[in-house]
Amino acid sequence: MKHIVFVTLKLLFERKRQTIVAIVGVSIGVGAFIAMASLMNGFQKYFIEQALDLNAHVTLKVKDEPDKGKILKQVYGDNLYFNVYGSKPKELKDKIIDYKFLISKYEKDAEIIGIAPHLTGQGIVKYGTVDKSASLIGIDPILERKASVIDKFISNKKLDILTSDRDSVIIGKLLARDLGIDEVGKKVIITTPNGVTYLFKVVDFFDSGITMLDQTRIYMNLKTLQTILNKPNEVNEIIFKIKDVYKANEIADRINRETSYYTESWQKAFRNFLQLFKIQNYITYMIVFAILIVSAFGIFNIIMMTVLEKKRDIAILKALGYENVDIIKIFVFHGITIGFLGAIFGSFLGYAIQEFLASVNVSVEGLVRTKGFALDRSPLYFLYGILFAFTFSIFAAFYPSYKASKLNPIDIFRSSA
Amino acid sequence: MSSIIQLKNINKKIREELILRDINLSVTKGEFISIIGPSGSGKSSLLYIIGLLDIPSDGEVFIEGEKVDFTETHKIAHLRNIKFGFIFQFHYLIAEFSLLENVMVPMLKAGRTKEESKERAYLLLQKLGLKGKEKRKPFQISGGEQQRVAIARALANEPIVIIADEPTGNLDSKNTAIVMDIFCNLHLEGKTVIMVTHEIELTERTERIVKMLDGNIIEDIELDKKKC
Ligand SMILES: Nc1ncnc2c1ncn2[C@@H]1O[C@H](COP(=O)(O)OP(=O)(O)OP(=O)(O)O)[C@@H](O)[C@H]1O
Ligand SMILES: [Mg+2]
Question: What is the ipTM of this complex?
Answer without folding.
Answer: 0.93
